[in-house]
Amino acid sequence: MDQLCIVTTGGTIDKIYFDDKSDYQIGEPQIGLILEELGVAFRYRVIPILRKDSLHINDGDRELIRATIAAQDTPHVLVTHGTDSMVETAKVLASIPGKTIVLTGALNPARFRGSDAEFNIGTAVGAVQSLPAGVYIAMNGRIWDPAAVRKNVDANRFEAL
Q1: Domain, as residue range, for 113
Q2: Cut 0.85: pTM above it
Q3: Residue positions annotated with a catalytic role
Q4: Where is the binding site for substrate, in residues?
């Protein structure tokens, strides 16, 4: 992998809460800080394009994400995204040929102790380097085909359809 392109769209991974999980805003992307703290030995570039909860990502936003990724010259792309509509965005990105694209996020904000953010990012970084061209979701320690996975909101995890 020459350089990893990271596109950030917001979601829980970047949330900042001001009281008991009700009043929040989407803060600065956390992935660059996480990778820096972990001392990764590869080059990466972060392109922040949205700061939205994924429930508020619409078709126009998905087209912006698709066009941004399609315009990059790197074949390896990691996307941080909210978990509620990650599968829908992944399906839109499937129209981009010749790239390995992995979407990941977190069920708890990266700023929270015990967040799954670092684990999911690590899984996604490994996946984007080793999988063939295509679109994948990296959550809960697994790599998922977007056409065969859903978020189980009640159990707060991803599972096979």
Answers
A1: 4-160
A2: yes
A3: 12
A4: 54, 83-84
